[in-house]
Amino acid sequence: MKITKDLYQGSLALLTDFYQLTMAYAYWKSGKAEQEAVFNLFFRKHPFQGGFTVAAGLDYIVDYCNNFKFSEEDLSYLATMKGKDDQVLFETGFLDYLRKMKFSCDIDAVEEGTVVFPNTPLIRVKGPLIQCQLLETPLLNIINFQSLIATKAARINLAAQGEPVLEFGLRRAQGIDGGLAASRAAYIGGCTSTSNVMAGKLFGIPVSGTHAHSWIMSFETEMEAFEAYADAFPDQSIFLVDTYDTVNGIKNAIKVGKALRSKGKEMVGIRIDSGDLAYFSNVAREMLDEAGFPDAKIVASNDLDENIITSLKGQESSINVWGVGTKLVTAFDQPALGGVYKLSAIRDEKGTWVPKIKLSQQSIKINIPGLHTVKRFFSKGKAVADMIYLEDQELNPQAALIIDPNDPTRRKRMMPAFYQEEILLKPIFTKGKLTYKLPTISQIRDRVQNQLESLDKTHKRLVNPHLYPIGLEENLHQLRMELVMKAKQVDNGNESEK
C-alpha cells in the first residue's frame, strides 16, 4: 500500500504547519539543523472519557517517511514566499539544504493496534533536529485521527458484544482523506466491513451494503422493489423495510424471502433505519420466526453509537447486526484526540544527551524529559501496569517503583519476578531505513482484540472506567522534579529570589 503514490501523486512534505518551516529555517540559519534531538508523541487524556486508547496510523507514517522529500515544485513554491518586508523569506542556501536532505531519523513506536495510555510515548523520533521538527505536524495529523476513530470503533464493538458492526460513514466523513482513514481505523478497531469501496481497494477491507430508500421509491410499490433486488442479488438480499410502513415492509420482505427459498436461495435479513428500533426489531423477530426465518438477520442503523447500542441491548432488542456511520467516522462526541509532540532531549557538543523540560501552570502539561521508553507488566496474561523509564537507566532487578506523572501520591511497587514484561516501543526506522515488517490490516485488527482481552474488564467500562496504573520509574520521576525546580529557579532570572 502506497498512500502518497495512490492518492497524492508525489511529495507530502508541505503537509505541515508554516511555523515548522520557519523553525526549520531558523535551525539551519543558527547552525542547529543537524544537532541530534529526541521528540515524543503522546496524549494526555483518553478520548470519550474512556479507559483505553487504540494506537493507529503507523502504516501511514511508514509510508509518509519512506516518501519524505521536498520536490522541485515544493521548493519553487517556498521560493516565492516573502516576509513582511516584502523580501524573500527563505534563502537559496536553505532551499538547497532541503533539496538534498534525506530522511535519516530513528523512529521507535508502539505497534499499530496496541492499547495505550496517557503520557506514554506512542512514537519516539530521534535524529537531526530539523527533521524531527518537520515530522511533528504530519505525525500528529495521522496518529491523532486514526487512533481516535480506532478507539471509537473498539468501544462500539464492545457495546455490540461480539455482534457484527458495519461501518457506513463515508457520506458523513470529513472529506475524502477523513473518509478513507476513518474506514481503515474503524476496521482496525473491530468493525467487520465498510461501505467505502475505495477503502476496500486500498486497504483490503471487506465491503458491504444493501440498498437505500431511493431504491424502493424508484418503483411503483415496495414489493416490486424487493422482488427486483432479490432478482439481482438472490444470495445476499437484505431488505430495507421502513420506507413507508415498517410492519408492512417486514411482511413484504417475508413474502419475497419465501419466493427466494422456493428457488433454493435464502434471504439474509432486513434492515431498519428509523423509528423505535427496539420495538420494531422485536416485532420483526417475532414475524420472521413465525414465517420460518429464524436465521434472518435484523440490521439496525440510524445514528448509532456505543451508548445507543448499550441502551438497545438493555431493552432486549432483537438487533444482531449494527450499521454505524456518522458518530463513528466523525468521532461525534469528541472531535480530536489531543496528542502532542514534545522535545525531551538534545545532544550537546560533547555528545551527551541533555534532558529537556517544559513547564506549565497545569501539571498535566509538564513533559517527561530524557531519552525514555515504556514497559508493560503482565500477570497471567493480563496487563497490570505500564512504566515509563530512562532507556539507559539501570533498573532495580528486585523491585521498580512507578509514580503517577500527574499525582505523585499515586505509587505502585512492581516486583519483576512476579510479572512478564514487554517493551512497547519497537524499532521502525533506523537511520532513515525501514527495519520493521509491517503487519497486514487483519493482523492489526487481531492485535486490537488480543490487546483488549489483556485488559481487565473494569478498564473497558464505557462509563467510569477503572484507572489503569501508569507511572514514571522513580529515577525518571526524580529527574523530572529536579529539572522542574531548576527551571523555576531560573525563570525570568528572579524566581530564586522569591
Which short descriptors sum up this protein?
single chain; 498 residues; alpha/beta; TIM Barrel; 7-stranded antiparallel β-sheet; 21 strands; globular; nicotinamide phosphoribosyltransferase activity; phosphoprotein; Nicotinate phosphoribosyltransferase
Individual helix count: 17
What fold name goes in the CATH topology slot of the domain at 210-302? TIM Barrel
Q: Residue-averaged pLDDT, rounded?
A: 94
Using DSSP, what is the number of strands? 21
Quaternary: single chain
Task: Determine the strand fraction and express it as a percent band.
Answer: 15-25%
Please give the CATH class of the domain at 210-302: Alpha Beta
CATH superfamily of the domain at 210-302: Aldolase class I
Which second-level CATH architecture of the domain at 210-302 applies?
A: Alpha-Beta Barrel
- Which percent range fits the helix content? 25-40%
Q: Report, as a whole number of angstroms, the end-to-end distance.
A: 59 Å
Q: Sheet with the most strands?
A: 7 strands, antiparallel
The computed structural class is: alpha/beta
Shape: globular
